[in-house]
Amino acid sequence: MNRVKALFLLNIIILFTIISSAKTLEIIRDTELEQFTDEIVKILLADSAIEAEDINVYFINSNQVNAFVTGGKNIFINTELIIKAKDYREYAAVIAHELAHILGGHIFRTSEELANISNKAMPIYLLGIIGLISGASDAGFAGVMVGQAAVSDTFTFYSRTQEAAADQKAVSILCNGMIDASYLSSFLENLETIDSNIQSKSENYRSTHPLPQDRISWIQLALRNNEKCDYKIDKELEKRFNLIKAKLFGFTHSNEETKAVYSLNNNQDLYANAVSSYLNGEHEQSTQKLNKLIKVNNENPFFKELIAEIYFVNQKYDEAISFQTAAINNLNAENDLYMMMLGNYLLSTEDAEKVNESIYYLKKSLHLNAKNSYSWYLLAKAYAFMGDISFANYATAERYFLIGERRLSYDFALKAIEEIKKNTPEWYRTYDLIEILKKEVSTNTN
Q1: pTM (2 decimals)?
Q2: Which end of the chain has less neighbouring CB within 10 Å, N or C?
Q3: Domains of the chain, residue spans
Q4: Which residue in 237, 229, 222, 209 sits closest to 91, CA to CA?
């Protein structure tokens, strides 16, 4: 089974990374990783004027250890950085450093960059850590939307002064969050042990940031100014972090590597091999491992989400629906991906009653995240199945608008407005789309 490729063309001003030409990044979304990272960000920003909800964290599927920030409040973290972090505190330390740059106003801003991030770089979805969904036709990928930001050849670098300030601020952020700040230097020391031949000399963390030796001295200075910062480990956070690392390893590394590294029979080893076996086409083995994990922890929604996906790709829709429903019930917050997935499973049954139910979950997904283009695609498909062509046209107009297909969005909005009931929310939104697009489409046509 081929691994899902979610392509995100990102050509914006990047501060930690020098880019000489258009670059293709693979952005992934995973609910387990997102929730954990959001929790860490909230801990770190507890005493800050910036709300954690204002920070956008994106995850790049890459074997390079790197993290960087861009204009606005956007943090990008490579999956391999998470895998290489020995401890959740090292991961938190990297986030603290990136937050320090944002808090310190070290980011070079342009109106073009901010416009592209907010308007064009829409979310790109992998449904958790999963493979292709049967029957998906949107570019051949499940939940994939390609967002293109404008190309810019203007880049700026952080100065040594800014890096030193960010490291010292990161120490303060970590200490205030009751996380041992010595793990920032621990992470840098850890980098020194990573084989430099594996890393791209132009794009890894060590080449886009000052030398670790210099940074460690800055951190030690800051630690001397924070007398009490040797906080103990949070065992629950560490347990969750190890599971996430295992999942990411199974997703991003070969089946042979995964079996070699995760060779025991504990929870994280089972999890890593369940993911890897699934992506390797060994669905029965993956299901067996996940059932063991569910037996140990029946409240974990992420085990159930993955087993639901396995049933789904094998067209066992009732089982997929059952496990995905259980995953939603176990999740501690409503989530657009989980609602979207359940909506997709219900829709795939082609049973009128279940398709009608899928509309409820897809609309709920879009209420949580209106920029989820794949939910719009599925919603259009569900409306068409139920014979509601006007609403199908409306949903299609929304999807095309998100992915930048303005002419198609305009055409479908015109079709929708002819049939859709007046003075409904959908009618007003369709009318707004037409007004927004009318001038743009007219200009492009001329």
Answers
A1: 0.81
A2: C
A3: 7-235, 388-446
A4: 237
